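Sample pair:
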Amino acid sequence: MVTITDRVRFSETDLMAVVHHTNYLRWFEAGRVAYFRQAGIDLNDLQKAGYMIPIVDVQAHFKQSARFDDIYEVQTTLVKVSRITIEFRYKILRKSDGALLVEGTSRNAFVNLQGKPERLTGEYFDKLQQLAAQERKNQA
């Protein structure tokens, strides 16, 4: 699991003074980027190599609301990776009380710059597999 911590910005809240639901998807994305970075994959380099990673499915289950200035943690776990798709699970927790705010999943595809499916090369695939194996070992 890769974790990142941040603080709710005023611009992320709505007229009810709670985080607008679309921001949780942005936080999922921040978790994915951190996961790739932890695996040793720079997304700029991945794009230079001819890959994009669009979302093909995303789900979010909202449990509690975050509010302006809350500190939150995004926990990102790799569920499954193939050379064509990658799936993540997310939990977003409020740091002050550990409350689960949102949990969800996303599935992304590896595509070329024209948007056609493109098999991920061994170099990138191996880095993701290594981090996933390390996570499984740490959980045991």
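The longest helix spans residues 122-139.
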